Amino acid sequence: MQKKQKTLNQDGMITPTILVVLVVFSVFATGIMSWALQTRKSVVNTARGTQALQVAEAGIDYYKWHLAHDESDYQNGNSWCCDKDNPVTLSVADCDGVCGPYTEIYKDYDGKDIGEYSLLIEVPPAGSTIVQIESTGKTYKDVSVKKTIAAKLGKKSLARYSMLSNAPIWIGPDETTSGPLHSNKGIRFDGLCNAEVTSAVASYNCNTANHSCSGTKPGIWGSASNSCKQYWDFPDNYTDFENFTLNMADIQADAEAAGISLAPSGKLGYWLQFKSNGTVDVSRVTGWKYNVKYYDDNGSEVIGNEGVGSSVFIKNYPIPSNGLIFVKDNVFVEGTVNGRVTVAATKYEDTPFDYAKIYIESNITYLAKDGGDVLGLMSEGDIVVPRHAPVPVEIDAVMLSQKGHVYTRNYKEENKNKKIGSITVYGGIISNLFWTWTYTSGGKPVDGYTHTIMEYDNNLTFGPPPSFPTEKEYEVLDWSEK
Questions:
Q1: Which of 244, 90, 218 is nearest to 158 (CA)?
Q2: How do residues 223-258 score in pLDDT, each as one tens digit?
Q3: d(C-alpha 224, C-alpha 127), whole Å
Q4: Under 8 Å CB-to-CB from 229, ≥6 apart: which residues?
Q5: What average pLDDT does range 308-322 have in this prediction?
Q6: What are the backbone angles phi and psi of residue 406, rounded to the nearest 5°?
Q7: DSSP state of 223
Q8: What's the CA gap between 128 and 463, in Å, rounded?
Q9: What are the helix and strand counts (H, E) for the chain?
Q10: Predicted local confidence at residue 1, as pLDDT
Q11: CB of 171 closer than 8 Å to CB of 195
Q12: Which of 247, 244, 222, 234 minimizes the C-alpha distance to 184?
């Protein structure tokens, strides 16, 4: 008997399989679509965030440009400082030194408005060139996406140099410099250094530089150690001393408005004795103490005078809020400085012999060397450390001679210092003509100080004495996204 073969019906099995495949595919496709949408959204958000960040950066660039054209405007050309909707105009002090927000529209290259940035500007404290700016940017495509950048802008001052000269410089084997040193002419360097040493020339004629050498020498040369030579760089940029003369008239105007301004004394000048309590005694100098003989730059004998012999006390002044003391005469200075001060001396003369001079009568020191106490000495003519100055002597100041020397004089034999000791400058020297504290013969000191020490005050780069010359351009010192 033949058995019948049973045939299975497979139609019912295919349907569940297809359903399973469809479900799996649907889940997988949904996942892919969700991932794609999320990725697209993330890319769009990132792109919009990047665009908003670029708008915020544009705000920093804009205000850097604005300060280049009006370096003292921290209010974006407005008369109000903060809370522009307040009917009462608020001052910088009312706003705790933070001005804004100031909103500007950002355009693309075709002039189309694509976003805006809002600026908050923190006014620099007295004596500082550092401006802090916070810029918040957004695009009109999505105003909910914002990016904020905090930046510090600053202008370097000439006080950043431990020494700057418009004449050749010779650093002897017993001399130590700290901080940047620059000359527009040649440099002979036989001492110690720990920072850049630069010259504006590739080479110079040593015959005319009084560097005890002959012929043509490199812009910088000498017997300094290799550890010092690694800092040498030449030729470097030229620094124009003619730019300095622009500051005196401004300082006079500001001193007359809110500082101390002293008219011609009718005698020999003014004696400024700084006090540790933040004041200064001002006296009129009526008589010299010493008659001296010294040599000028050409080796000719000069008969002159030095030292406060007699004086008449005028007044004890508090250090003015703007830190400016303008003197249209000679100045004799000493004491302990408590505060931020610039003493500017000029007679606006055309004859070198008649230029106003500053004499360092004795030690000038800061109450504290923390950047809070700063002294700038700006003279039309020479800044002189005279024969009778103490040994050792310390000068805490940035000394700037626009048209003369920062130096001790080369006295004739009967008046020579022949000082065995040191002179320390904590700050800087900026001298149009040659600078020196020591005169030598045959390699040995014959006059002045036997050892000189330059101590660099790094607080001065962006925190110079009031109204001290600065560079024209602001630079970005710090940048961060908040």
A1: 244
A2: 999 999 999 999 998 988 776 665 788 899 999 999
A3: 36
A4: none
A5: 97
A6: -115, 110
A7: S
A8: 4
A9: 3, 31
A10: 45
A11: no
A12: 234
Task: Please give the Cα distance from 349 to 252 (Å, whole number).
Answer: 15
Query: Residues of 53-89 as b/e, b for ≥16 C-beta within 10 angstroms?
Result: bbbbbbbbebbbebbeeeeeebbbeeebbbeeeeeee
pLDDT digits 0-9 by tens, 8-19: 455 555 666 776
Q: Which residue has the tokens 């690694």?
A: 230
How far is it, in rounded angstroms, from Cα 278 to Cα 339? Answer: 6
Long-range contact set of residues 15-18: C-beta below 8 Å, sequence gap at least 24:
none
Query: Over 90: is that where the pLDDT of 109 sits?
Result: no
Peptide bond into 180 cis (omega under 30): no
How high is the mean pLDDT of the chain?
88
Helical residues (DSSP H) of 375-474, grouped into ranges? none
Cα 165 from Cα 401, distance rounded (Å):
10
Write down how long the chain is: 482
Q: What single-letter amino acid sits at 209?
A: A
Query: How many whole angstroms separate alpha carbon 425 and alpha carbon 440?
Result: 20
Contact assessment for residue 199 and residue 219, using Cβ atoms and an 8 Å cutoff: yes
Structural contact between residues 144 and 152, judged by C-beta atoms closer than 8 angstroms: no
The distance from CA 464 to its chain's CA centroid, rounded to whole angstroms, is: 6
Question: In this structure, what DSSP letter does residue 459 have?
Answer: G
Distance CA 229, CA 242 (A): 30
Largest Cα–Cα separation, the chain:
155
- CA 458/CA 345 separation, integer angstroms: 25
Question: How many CB atoms sit inside 10 A of residue 459's CB?
Answer: 18
Give the burial class of 478: count Cβ atoms within 10 A of its Cβ; 0-12 exposed, 13-18 middle, 19 or more buried: exposed
What pLDDT, in 10s, does the model give residues 88-99?
A: 778 888 888 899
